[in-house]
Amino acid sequence: MNKRTWTTISRDKAAARRQAAARPFAEKLVVLDRLRERAHALRTRKPSKEQP
Amino acid sequence: MALRDVLSELEALEHAGIVPRFAIGGAVGATRYIEPAATEDVDVFISFPQSEDSPLAPLGSIYQFLTARGARAEGAHLVIGDWPVQFLPADNLLLAEALAAAREEDVDGVGTRVFTAEHLAAIALQLGRAKDKLRVVQFLEADALNMDVFTAILDRHGLTERWREFSRTILGDQ
């Protein structure tokens, strides 16, 4: 990957991060709720009885 | 119970006069300024009234008020709905300043208060754990800090040298 492409990707990613950070607080709190639910579901998931 | 409902309970706690002032810090507070990242609990910083017999007495009132409304005690946390909440005293100068300067927020009709980005970053720098250093980097990447305000806070609380070290080792500044 050449330097120009890498610079463009980095700049796009930084812009995307700033855009995500600028979203309303209430909206981002809902994301935290979802992340917590997902983590809880993963922790409490029963192991499958099926053999690989 | 979602985070908004937790904030609603905290608002009720303040309206009832149990705590004079509270503000959200930690990862949930940081979410106001940077991308959301999974977290285990909600850090709530409070000022304690000075007239109590024991320095921890106000925690008893908080627990009593919130457990009567359905919260349950679990270790160092009070679990409100699905979220463990930790009440922490703003017991050093930086935390006390952060609490005083916390900004008002409206979360879908619920009034709350969040530490400023600059105070959150300064507290993270003061704590200095790996996850705190990462948070400072996230604040910088999100362009969330007013650097004049941030460096003034660092100066007031003796963190300037730590910031220089952080800039040199983590950010690669010369």
Summarize the structure in words.
The complex is a heterodimer of chains A (52) and B (174). Chain A has 52 residues and is mainly alpha-helical. Helices cover 75% and strands 0% of the residues of chain A. Chain B has 174 residues and is α+β, with helices and mostly antiparallel strands. In chain B, 47% of the residues lie in helices and 18% in strands. In chain B, the strands form 2 sheets. A 5-stranded mixed beta sheet of chain B has the order 1-2-5-4-3. A two-stranded antiparallel ribbon of chain B has the order 6-7. In chain B, helix 4 packs antiparallel against helix 5 and helix 5 (117-127) crosses helix 7. The termini of chain B are far apart. Classes of the chains: A mainly alpha (52), B alpha+beta (174). The interface between A and B is medium-sized, with 18 and 24 residues.
Q: Return the structural class of chain A.
A: mainly alpha
Helix content of chain A: over 70%
The most extensive contact between chains is: A-B, 18 and 24 residues
- How is the quaternary structure best described? heterodimer
Taking the sheet with the most strands of chain B, its summary is: 5 strands, mixed
Count of helical stretches of chain B: 8
State the low-pLDDT regions of chain A, or none: none
Tally of alpha and pi helices of chain A: 2
List the helices and strands and how they pair.
The complex is a heterodimer of chains A (52) and B (174).
Chain A: H1 3-21, H2 25-44
Chain B: H1 3-15, E1 22-24, H2 26-30, E2 42-46, H3 57-67, E3 72-74, E4 77-80, E5 83-89, H4 93-101, E6 103-107, E7 110-114, H5 117-127, H6 130-141, H7 147-156, H8 160-169
Parallel strand pairs in B: 2-5
Antiparallel strand pairs in B: 1-2, 3-4, 4-5, 6-7
Helix pairs in contact in B: 4-5, 5-6, 5-7
